[in-house]
Write a structure and sequence with these properties.
By secondary structure, the protein is of the alpha+beta class. It has helices at 6-13, 61-74, 79-82, 87-93, 102-125; strands spanning 26-31, 38-46, 49-58. Bound molecules: FE2/S2 (inorganic) cluster.
Length: 127
């Protein structure tokens, strides 16, 4: 069996939602100290819903595929749903990741949560 699923390879070769949102409403970053990979998520929020999302990932193929899939999973979703996204769901949507690459999907979960938290923090500051 191939190490990586077709879905992982597809999202690695043709990542969705790559880039930066200059006027993002929330930005979150996550990194893994062991491999040194870093993921950054930019959110545009309208009516508590993800109107747009972009990512920058400096990391391995699994991290890029996880970022791409995670952004697809949260696009158009209410923030309450976004906060329930787990790395397991990202890995499942990718039709699995090798065990030693599961931490790559954790970066996506953490970066998205950090971006939502940043959005909430900014909202509080502007109250
Ligand atoms: Fe660390 Fe993939 S090897 S994020």
């Amino acid at each position: 069996m191939a190490l990586y699923s077709e879905t992982v390879m597809d999202h690695f070769r043709n990542p969705r939602n790559v880039g930066v949102i200059e006027d993002a409403d929330g930005v979150g970053e996550a990194g893994n100290a062991v491999c040194g990979d870093i993921m950054k998520i930019y959110l545009k929020i309208e009516d508590s819903t993800v109107a747009d999302v972009r990512f920058e990932t400096f990391g391995c193929g699994s991290a890029i595929a996880s970022s791409s899939m995670a952004t697809e999973l949260i696009k158009g979703r209410h923030l309450s749903e976004v906060l329930t996204l787990t790395n397991k769901a990202v890995a499942e949507a990718l039709d699995g990741l090798p065990a030693h690459k599961l931490h790559c999907s954790v970066l996506a979960e953490e970066a998205i949560r950090a971006a939502v938290q940043d959005y909430y923090d900014r909202q509080k500051l502007s109250e």
